[in-house]
Specification:
Chains A, B: InterPro entries: Aminotrans_IV, Aminotrans_IV_CS, Aminotransferase-like, B_amino_transII, BCAT-like_C, BCAT-like_N, BCAT_family. Chains A, B: GO terms for molecular function: L-isoleucine-2-oxoglutarate transaminase activity; L-leucine-2-oxoglutarate transaminase activity; L-valine-2-oxoglutarate transaminase activity. Two copies of one chain form a homodimer. Chain A has two domains: about 10-170, Aminotransferase class 4, branched-chain amino acid transferase, N-terminal domain (D-amino Acid Aminotransferase, Chain A, domain 1, 2-Layer Sandwich); about 180-340, D-amino Acid Aminotransferase, subunit A, domain 2 (D-amino Acid Aminotransferase, Chain A, domain 2, Alpha-Beta Barrel). Chain A has seven helices and 21 strands. Chain A has helices at about 65-70, 90-105, 115-125, 200-215, 260-270, 285-290, 330-340; strands at about 10, 35-45, 45, 50-55, 60, 70-75, 75-80, 85-90, 140-145, 160-170, 175-180, 220, 230, 240-245, 245-250, 275-280, 280, 295-300, 305-315, 320, 350-355. In chain A, strands 1, 2, 3, 4, 6, 7, 8, 9, 10 and 21 form a ten-stranded mixed beta sheet that branches. In chain A, strands 11, 12, 14, 15, 16, 18, 19 and 20 form an eight-stranded mixed beta sheet that branches. At the A-B interface, strand 5, helix 1, strand 9, strand 10 and helix 4 of A face strand 5, helix 1, strand 9, strand 10 and helix 4 of B. Bound molecules: pyridoxal-5'-phosphate (2 copies).
């Protein structure tokens, strides 16, 4: 992280903390926020002074562009506390770079590194009591940017607000995840915004995901929209397939989010001598592997759940149950990765950054 | 319109009007709003009482779903004042139906007809001084809905706000419109949300449109994302091609917005004995027609500009200028359509609805 530049930030502390009211043992994901938030406004072509202030509603004109034309992007990251009470981020540079890539694709201004990185650091420091020790506990960090310019004309806004809000999180257990392979709906177009962490990508998935939920599937595995033959990713996770002893995951593209967890797993697996192939897995291949027993595991990979094992999938109204593994590779990888994140294992990659 | 039910609305009038400060001769589109707005909140599975109140900023929690996951839809309509000072809407039922189709696709609740239609009527009546007489003048109506539920978890919101805001408009003259045919970028996926008037669809277009602007083209004509061979629509307009004396326009699909202006033009042209074919025009066909001189006209069709003539297009770095027409069909159609809207010609279709 860059050196401390407190002067550049306008800091207004909350009169008292809400932390005593929080039941840290029973946290629903993304539901409770810490005492403070950060915002920084962009106007007349430049960013103003970042402000850290008590978490509170913001005033928005009803004609704000974000409401009408959807210029909104975000990131999802976590802060972890180790046994020495030090707080660590995991590859925050990756999130910063991806955030500004998203900004560019949505015709929004890039956020300066100082505002993003130093903003995170200052804000987390002020609310550091909210980061709980113990594996599984974390502080979920949500930097985001919205178009605040007024006017209902379909053109990029001239004004924006960058914000960071923080939410304490427990380990994310989603139960047994069964997935539905998309045959009709899709989340991203060729030449579209699928590779951006843009708000609009998520709302597009809600209706098809709800239909899948009604059929008993928790998630949809998206396929390419043109042919629906290539397996791409899940709603908020990249996807890995273990066929025999090789791990497969789709290459990133304009349609697929370049996940930090995904790329970390690729590196970690390689270090562990696991065979990893980055290439599109076809639906037909998956079906064949499920039928002949070579499909051993499937799992999602993303910041929230780290690794989310999938127990089976449905395609064309047939459900394929995956075999139970004695020692699932998914959990071994999850363990290795979270040990790095919580400073319980040596970080040979230099991924962790102390606050 | 349904009968007057003022009791069901909570109406708080502004202490004074801002109208005296408005220069109605120099209005930028979508920039100035009338004295009042309408909002209606959805919570616990039901819609509350619609409120009409002075136009003012609204309070939003920073974790509101609209900011993070883009659940936001809208409509664009106009109110016209005739020579008798009566105010008319144009096919508002079409916008109402489309609004709720968009809502369903975005996993948002449908808005009751009473709230949408009676809401428009009541609100316009209160701000009726803002609807100016004279062809070209109108009041642009912007019903929209945003997800107001809190929490950064990628799932549909449980709370929503429906709103209507109103903006006085002059006739929308965009100058000479040159367009770029999309070769790489796209606005919609197969199985995506392109047919919905969803906020996210617009932000996806801003960056490629800005690139086109930098090359001297005002708009992009989108092609299908899988092959980029089919001409689809423009950013906020459907597109018509006149080859010899036939008008062509793409069929609506999951990727294309079912425009009210488009369908009205199809009906109007048919009534006038003009040959209209609803089918995809291929880029190759367009090039051939431009080269052999059979391509006579291209124009966009949408509520804001009604009909927007296109003077030329670029494809693969070659610019094709369209021939000048003595009596462009586009302007004849525009005239016939606006005459119906302003009650200057008989409405044989029953499209106009008095407020
Ligand atoms: C669509 C999508 N894919 C994949 C991921 C995983 O990315 P990361 O590992 O950086 O959290 C996310 C983010 O959570 C996502 O939203
Ligand atoms: C993407 C898109 N296509 C076409 C149109 C034209 O639709 P309408 O004629 O209903 O205004 C619009 C709306 O303005 C639009 O946003």
């Amino acid at each position: 992280m860059s050196e401390n530049k407190t002067q550049a930030f306008d800091i207004k502390k909350a009169a008292e903390s809400k932390i005593a009211n929080v039941d840290f043992e029973n946290l629903a994901f993304g539901n409770i926020f810490t005492d403070h938030m950060l915002y920084c406004d962009y106007k007349d072509g430049e960013w103003g002074t970042p402000v850290i202030c008590p978490y509170a509603p913001i005033e928005m004109d009803p004609s704000s562009r974000v409401f009408h034309y959807g210029q909104a992007i975000f990131e999802g990251m976590k802060a972890y506390k180790d046994e020495q009470d030090d707080i660590w981020l995991f590859r925050p540079d990756e999130n910063f770079i991806r955030f500004n890539k998203s900004a560019t694709r949505l015709a929004m201004p890039e956020v300066p590194e100082e505002v993003f990185m130093e903003g995170l650091k200052q804000l987390i420091n002020i609310d550091k009591e909210w980061v709980r020790k113990g594996k599984g506990n974390s502080l979920y960090l949500r930097p985001f940017m919205i178009a605040t310019g007024h006017g209902v004309i379909a053109a990029p806004s001239a004004q924006y607000r960058f914000m960071i809000i923080l939410s304490p999180a427990k380990s994310y257990y989603t139960g047994e995840v069964k997935v539905l392979i998309a045959e009709h709906f899709s989340r991203a177009a060729n030449g579209g915004i699928g590779a951006a962490k843009a708000a609009g990508n998520y709302s597009a998935q809600f209706y098809p995901t709800r239909l899948a939920n009604q059929q008993g599937y928790q998630q949809v595995i998206w396929t390419d929209d043109a042919t629906h033959t290539k397996l791409e990713e899940a709603g908020t996770m990249n996807v890995f397939f273990r066929i025999n002893d090789t791990l497969y995951t789709a290459p990133t593209s304009e349609r697929i989010l370049d996940g930090v967890t995904r790329k970390s797993i690729i590196d970690l697996a390689k270090r562990e001598g696991i065979n990893v192939e980055v290439r599109s897995v076809l639906v037909d291949e998956l079906l064949a592997a499920a039928k002949d027993g070579s499909l051993k595991e499937m799992f999602g990979a993303g910041t929230a759940a780290v690794v989310n094992p999938i127990v089976g999938f449905s395609y064309q109204d047939t459900y394929y149950e995956l075999p139970k593994q004695d020692k699932p590779l998914s959990l071994e990888i999850k363990d290795k990765l979270t040990n790095i994140q919580y400073k319980l294992a040596e970080d040979t990659f230099g991924w962790t950054v102390k606050i």
